[in-house]
Amino acid sequence: MTRHDASPYATVMGDGQLTGRPIVLAGAGPYGGDLEVPEPLVTGGKTWADVDRDICMHAERFPTRRWWIAFAVALSFLGLLVFSVGVLLYDGMGILGVNHPVGWGSFIINFVFWIGIGHAGTLISAVLFLFRQQWRTGINRAAEAMTLFAVACAGIFPVLHLGRAWFAYWLVPYPNARGPLWVNFNSPLAWDIFAISTYGLVSLAFWYVGLLPDLATVRDRATHPWRKKLYNAMSFGWTGSHRMWRHYESAYMILAALATPLVFSVHTIVSFDFATSVIPGWHTTIFPPYFVIGAIFSGFAMVITLMTFMRGYFGMKNYITLNHMEAMAKILMLTGMLVGFAYSTEFFMAWYSGSEWEGFVFRNRAFGPYGWAYFIMFTCNAIVPQVFWWKKARRNTWVLFVVSILVNVGMWFERYVIVVTSLHRDFLPSSWGMYALTRWDYAILLGSFGLFFTLFLLFVRVLPVVAISEVKGVMDPKVARSAPEDPPTAAAPLAAQEA
Amino acid sequence: MMPTSTKGVLGHFREPDEALAAAAKVRDAGWKHFDFLTPFPIHGMEEAMGQRRSWIPIATAVLAACGILFAQGLQNYVMVWDWPMNFGGKPHASWPAFIPITFEAMVFWAALGTALVAIVAGKRDTVPQPPPMVVETGATVDRFVLWISATDPKWNPAEAETFVRSLGAQGVRLVDGGADA
Predict the structure, then answer these.
(1) What's the mean pLDDT when you consider all of chain B?
(2) Mean pLDDT score, A32-57
(3) B35 and A241 in contact by Cβ < 8 A?
């Protein structure tokens, strides 16, 4: 590490030295004044070669005991999902809590919950990319993977909610022998199919395009010829040529620009499922922005949860620093306040509209039999994140972790409140009822977490969990460059034909 | 092409700024078939290498238009032509209801198409003779590698090697097709 001559970043070894404030270089500025530079995004005096080692390491060695334990737990919950879905398909919807009048139950709640979680990944990759937020580089790969797995979890629920899941393909408009009988394109439920599938596939494309250069890095590190071949094929023979980078960068920018409105459109369309109905409590114009901001909020909470694990168990503290966590905490607090604002606006409008039905639904929401759910929602989402006004809390990973879990709980209850309290007291008191989850509802909800974490644990085993090429781009070359005396990298026997 | 099996010359730089400065010099010296292999994209490299802006945005625009046409065509065909139905007395061609799917289809075609087109374009838009894959350059690790292909009209092995050395590149070497051709 002797070659880190002048860079102020060379001596920043870890979180302990980060303050969240710029580094002041006395006398280094213009006219002999002070120069303030932002703190490094990568600590530990890492070189570019270190980045490859640190990040690819997890995919290159035999899994640790910890990973096996986590995987076994996740897999058993996935087993629970498979079993309960099997029982559901065999026995039918009667085993669930849905009833009359609460015809939308835990499946719709879970669907909106998971799709919401899926929003942070693309937001981090696309929106923060367009805003040139360089700290996104440490977390975007894992957040995008999280998006894909959350969308996979979300996709299960509407299909199961159909009741006859084996006819799910009827949702897709294709020439068929039933008339052809088409889907109704005026229906938000049909829009949803397009929105969710587009979101899933575009997120996949975005994630994969981002992976290409890193797959080439893994390939170049691979020693086994088959592994080399596999990763070479997966990276489409990426060489790092600037003639490739030219198109790549252009495409990546366009994908970000397309994914940004897509993120907003998807949860908007999910909210149309509710808002275009005539149910008081659903039929409101605030729903699209309210759903989108709630989705971003819950997604960031899940990112914080996952990043806490990545920092702790995968030794990523040099790449996902406390400054990254603090930035996410700030977004969590901002979106939490927006969500709280939406809750309040809804209440205000229920009163201000003068609509008897709307007023009743909201009084019933907060003070009726499901007031406890409303209380959990409001506390976890609007009040708990207020702790992030204190810098100490934003930079304490325990506080962050606990808040992120509470926010996820709160956001699940938000959907519970929206779905259940709007339905359970119908227009006629003779059609009032209560709703409770049955053991199968719980089993499938827990099982979906099993699917999510199984996929995530497999991801961290086989692919680079941090966007290597992007992280390299935000490092200080003075710290990260190779040593001048290095021989050509790993002067391989095949390259022995030097002149 | 030279009668020998020499494929080109390699040299690397340790910092993106050095590579950028070198690229402008290579361009100004009149070399055409050269390339930089780098671990991450360098700002300003297109210009330094004398390349034009990528044409990918045009492909995206065309694909987006295809997506719009597809969605509008499908929805109008189904809802107006093939099986018109009366939903609450609303017009068959109720265009506001067609907007969400039109938007999603536009993004779908544009995004997936752009990803595919960019991959294909990146593969095709190389120098006529890229460095053989088996030569380990370190370009995916921490080297900013300059490659001048032997197909260049100005090619002369000794001259090219001297030129690359004069740029301050390290590890300058000629690569022949020999073992891996």
Answers:
(1) 88
(2) 88
(3) yes
Same domain for B134 and B49: yes
In the block, tokens 């799709």 appear at: A115
Residue A432 phi/psi, 5-degree rounding, is -90, 150
Return the CATH superfamily for domain A54-478: Formate dehydrogenase/DMSO reductase domain (1.20.1630.10)
Which tens digits make up the pLDDT trace of A93-121? 999 999 999 999 999 999 999 999 998 88
Domain that holds residue B139: 6-53+128-176
Same domain, B67 and B107: yes
- Binary contact (A469, B121; C-beta < 8 A): no
Put simply, the answer to whether B141 touches A52 (Cβ < 8 Å) is: yes
Ranked by mean pLDDT, which of A304-313, A374-383, B11-20, B84-93 comes out on top? Answer: A374-383
pLDDT grade, residue A350 (50/70/90)?
A: very high
Q: Residue A233: how many CB atoms within 10 A of its CB?
A: 11
In chain B, residues with a C-beta closer than 8 Å to the C-beta of A272 are 100
Tell me whether A249 touches chain B (CB under 8 Å). yes
| A460, HSE (Cβ side, Cα atoms, 13 Å) | 27
pLDDT over 80 (residue A494): no
* Interface contact flag, A248 B41, Cβ < 8 Å: yes
B142 phi and psi, to 5 degrees?
-145, 20
Residues on chain B touching A210 (C-beta within 8 angstroms): none
Q: Give the separation between CA A143 and CA A124, rounded to whole angstroms.
A: 7
B46 and B94 fall within a common domain:
no
- The pTM of this model reads 0.91
The answer to whether residue B180 scores a pLDDT higher than 60 is no
Asked if pLDDT for residue A281 goes beyond 70, the answer is: yes
Q: Is B136 helix (H, G, I), strand (E, B) or coil?
A: coil
CA angle A366, A101, A269 (to 5 degrees): 75
Question: Could you tell me which residues are beta bridge partners of residue A498?
Answer: B175
A135 close to A327: Cβ distance less than 8 angstroms: yes
Q: Is residue A386 less than 8 Å (CB to CB) from chain B? A: no
